[in-house]
Structures are given as C-alpha cells and as structure tokens.
Amino acid sequence: xxxxxxxxxxxxxxxxxRIGVATAPTQIEGGRRDTNWADWAGLPGRIKDGSTPLRAxxxxxxxxxxxxxxxxxxxxxxxxxxxxxxIEPTPGDFDTEAIAHYREEIQAIRNAGxxxxxxxHHFSHPSWFEALGGWTSEVAVETWLRFVRFVxxxxxxxxxxxxxxxxPNAFTTGGYLFGFFPPGRTDWLATRRVLATMAHAHCRxxxxxxxxxxxxxxxxxxxLRVFDPxxxxxxxxxxxxxxxxxxxxxxxxxxxxxGRWSRLLGAQPADVTPGRHxxxxxxxxxxxxxxxxxxxxxxxxxxxxxxxxxxxxAGIERVARWLHERYPGPIWVTENGTCDATDxxxxxxxxxxxxxxxxxxxxxxxxxxxxxxDNWEWAEGEVPRFGIVALDYETQERTVKDSGRFLxxxxxxxxxxxxxxxxxxASQRYRVVAAPTPRG
Length: 440
Ligand code: FCB
Prior knowledge:
CATH architecture: Alpha-Beta Barrel
Number of strands: 14
Structural class: alpha/beta
Bound molecules: beta-D-fucopyranose
C-alpha cells in the first residue's frame, strides 16, 4: 500500500498525538509490604476480593519482558511511578540499589524508543510516612520533597517529564471523605487539609524540580469527570452538579495549577506565589456522574463498563476544554481506559475517545492508555481488567489482547484505518443499563 492509499484508507488520523500506556508502581510491582496500601490490604474486608498488592503483576522482576512487549506493540510513551518505600525504606535513608534498579529499567525503556513520564506519588507511600500522619502531617511537604529531590537528582540524565501527584481528589475523597481508601477516615477537615497539603507539595515540587533540572516538564495528573444534573430541569440537581464539580476539581485546580488558594482550601501558604505551576495539563478521564446528591449516579440507558461507570467519550473533550480555558497549555491525557473483563468493547472505547480527541481543536499532545498489563485495582482488587494485555495472576503469563493489537495499529498507521476498524471495532457493542442501581 502506498502512503497516499494508506492515508485514504484512514477513518481518522491522530495527527501528531503520541500514544502510550500508564501504570502505577503499587498496582504492578508486587513485593512491598511497607506501604499504606499493603497495610490497608492486610486489614479484613478492605479489598473486595481479599487480595493484596504483594503479588500484582510482579513487574519488579518482569520489567524486561514488559518493556519488550511495549516495544513490540510500538508504544511511544510510558507513564510509570517510583515506589517511595523502595527508595526511602526508613526516613532519610535512601536505597541506592532500588534507584539503580529503576535506572536500569528506564534506560531500557529509552533504548526501546519509548519516552518515560515518571509519577512521584500515586496513592501510595511508606508506612512510616503514614505513621507520621501522612499528608495531614506538619512535616509532610518537606518529607516528600526530600524524596523528590533524591529521585530527580538520580534520574536527571534519563527523565525530563515528571508527574508530581496522581489524582489528589480521588486519593483524598477515597481516603478521608468516604473512607474506602487508606487511612479510611470520614472527616471533612482532614479531607481539606490533605488536599491543601498536596497542592502545597505540588507547587513546591514544581519549583524544586525546575531548580534541579531547568528543562524539566512538570505537571500533575488531575482526575476530571463530567458532573451533569441527573434531571436538567431540577434546580437541586443543577446546583449539586456545580457544587460537586467545584469541590472535586475546581478549587484544587486553582491551587495546583495557579498556586491560588480559595477559601475552601484555607490559607494561602507563605511560600507559594500565585502563578503558573505546570508545564502541561494532565487529564485522567474515565466517566461522567449524573448528579442528584453528593455521590456518583449514572444516567438511565447509558453505556457502562464492568464497574458500571458510564462510557461517555464526549466528556474527554468537555473536561479538557474546561481546564484549558482556565489554564492554557498542552494537554496530556495521563489516563483513559476502561474495565472490560472480556475485552469485548475496549477497542470501541479506545476508538471513540481517540476520535473525540482527533476532532478537537484543543492541543492534545499525548494519550496514555490505562493500563498496560491487567493490574491490582486498589480497593477493587485483582478482579477488574483494565489492561490491553491480559494477565494470568497464577502463572504471571501475559497475553496481548485484541485491544492491544488495535492500539498498536493506531500508532503504526497514525490513525484508525478502515481495516483496523472492521477487524477490531465494528462488531463491538457497549452494555447499556436501562435503570442503573444508585451507587453509594
Ligand atoms: C485512576 C487511578 C489509577 C487506576 C484507574 C482505573 O483513578 O489513578 O491508578 O486505578 O483509576
């Protein structure tokens, strides 16, 4: 096929969008007993299937195989995290072997032509940090920055793209407001304090990383969802949709990206000056909430995934536009993906979201699919399947799914060809729920 034919046969082109996958260390590495999540998983009833992060995908030992697989699929980007407890197993003592291990892995990733983006806090931290009070502690910011300084200094020649913190809103509402994440609290004041502390930590890290590495590109991965009123004519639903959006994402967007503290978050820290605190806009997008109370509802007759999250591709553009209007900058979709045990609609999900991105006039630069190999899904355990590669937890065998082949073909052809559409997407259908059971 000539290049011209190939372009003609494209259903849509992704232009310059670069594509890869995202992961988090606690969900893949296995083996660490000294984190807030391993401790939490050890308590009865906290994880739906009783699993722990100790097994996960054993990526700590299998990273070579995983890197080869990423390379085989032609992935261009890889978002990964550093497990803080490995690097600093006791306060102030840094493990040089652990950082050497990550260096070797990242070097291999680079050698495969894949660009790394490194996350510095993805829901997990050492048990000793939790014992200090975690992100409610007076010394949280300085303690985490000590770790950040160590990592950035030691990976300086291999990594320039940094994601400070993953989904502070999901971490905080899960851990401090609703209590289904560690440390299991339900306390509004603690929620507010943790959000404010994480924003403070991000703003400080933004400057610290630039001081250490002037050409660094720093941002954070913001969990953005669409909040629409369940009944658009109901003023209570409309009001609650606005309040939820502000509580869950508005106020912290201003603090993280603009260094501006609203009343909701408390006093402006003395060492944060309002101004730009990002080089790119990280968007983790999964779903929409039909709002009728302060919780997650789903519209009737919506397409949903295995976890009953609405599949709403237009939302990726809506949240990115909302963010970009307030804080202009290049958009990196740091996570987007779906839970689909049988891989029977994931390719359609990818197709539909990429199409929205491709048709948008917003500066989408990168797309990191969540996730690579099926992995340990926090409080949901080992059951949910988000990967483009299937995992057999018993044998640790990896098998590329049809959706993995589809994503690979999108990268190879710089878009979705008619052929790829026919082979991977055309026959796929979403499950539609006529009357969703109210959640929460
Ligand atoms: C996001 C998390 C990620 C994963 C996906 C499914 O909220 O950042 O670790 O759990 O959801």
